[in-house]
Amino acid sequence: MSPPKTFHVKSFGCQMNVYDGERMAELMAAQGLTQADAVDADVVVLNTCHIRERATEKVYSDIGRLRKDQRRKSGKTPMIAVAGCVAQAEGEEIFTRAKVDIVVGPQAYHNLPDLVAKAAAGTPSLDTDMPLLSKFGALPARRKVAPSAFLTVQEGCDKFCTYCVVPYTRGAEISRPFAAIVDEAKALVDAGAREITLLGQNVNAWSESDRGLHDLIRDLDRIPGLARIRYTTSHPNDMTQGLIDAHRDIESLMPFLHLPVQSGSDRVLKAMNRSHSRDSYLRLLDRVRAVRPDIALSGDFIVGFPGETDAEFEDTLSLVDAVGYAQAYSFKYSPRPGTPAASIVEQVPESVMDERLQRLQAALNRDQHAFNAATVGRTCTVLLERAGKLPGQLIGKSPWLQSVHLIGNQAIGDLVEVTLAAAGPNSLTGIERIAEAA
Predict the structure, then answer these.
(1) Quick one: which of 51, 50, 53, 12 has its CA closest to 354?
(2) Phi, psi of 137 (to 5 degrees)
(3) Per residue in 278-293, pLDDT tens?
(4) If you compute the radius of gyration of the chain from its CA atoms, what whole number of angstroms results?
């Protein structure tokens, strides 16, 4: 196989995978390869996620579809690299089932150029080692970025929720060094970012010596040109008072908090090995709202966890009613091989999970629409991120992470004062606020 000249990276799943995909693309570009569409690229990287239902089977389906599309268009067969959490979990099994060229885990993708060179020479390559953060030192400098950029500050998880594969695919919790994070944040701002979202499997577990995430945010707040800071995903167990107070004290820290709860039932939470109870979670949200009353809350939910009863699901619905989420993610439980929950005999029937998920999502959609409607009439700053479908339309984000559509002469990357004029279930329409003449 001749050395590839073009590449394509396709990322699935969470924001951390988006970040990893961007970094893999930068690695390939630094080797002189040119980005191309998937049907044209010489090497295609599938950056996989293992959280979603049937994630592994979807990877194999994507591999077959990709090969078919390339044969139909050009008659060639691309080099295929499977990266990310499915690669880490499946390992050599992927070579057996799909005959791909490269399998590389999420902690080893900095070795991707070497793996591509070996594959081009005819040697399929596997790298699922999990070194402590060495990949970040091997990654190239950040290039031009979008107005809103991701920055990984923490990886891995020590919580071992019984349904989750993250501790096995991403490893133990570890924090990137403070100085390296600040340097990358400055580089992102220099490359065009106005907003940075700090990422981690348990991002609020970030620490260095006696400093926590709130201390890191306070230092990032001093970077000239950085207008907005966000962070995700948080764990209730790591939500310190210092971080809560940061939402009151730091203007650039946006009024949005994603704090997964998973269930409203204490028995289910204990079976999940979550370290919080229903009451402690709600009291934590009360403390956050006490310092930032306008904060938008987001969460994660799993319905149909093994053994979940009708009454326990009703507990989840009543928690949703009590919180009033601005946004939320909800999923049916799906067993992951090797996790404790997968061996529980009392699995909930698929039809029951379907019905519960529909009811939960109806409640969450109701509350999201109500939150959006309650912001109509507010004036806020919107960061414009991309062009819309209509002529002259731009789409940006409010401080509360709402999508806002705006017609005007502004440019992508501008921060615009907008009055929120109309609300839909998933987005709002804004009108630019024109300053009155003095």
Answers:
(1) 53
(2) -70, -20
(3) 999 999 999 999 999 9
(4) 22
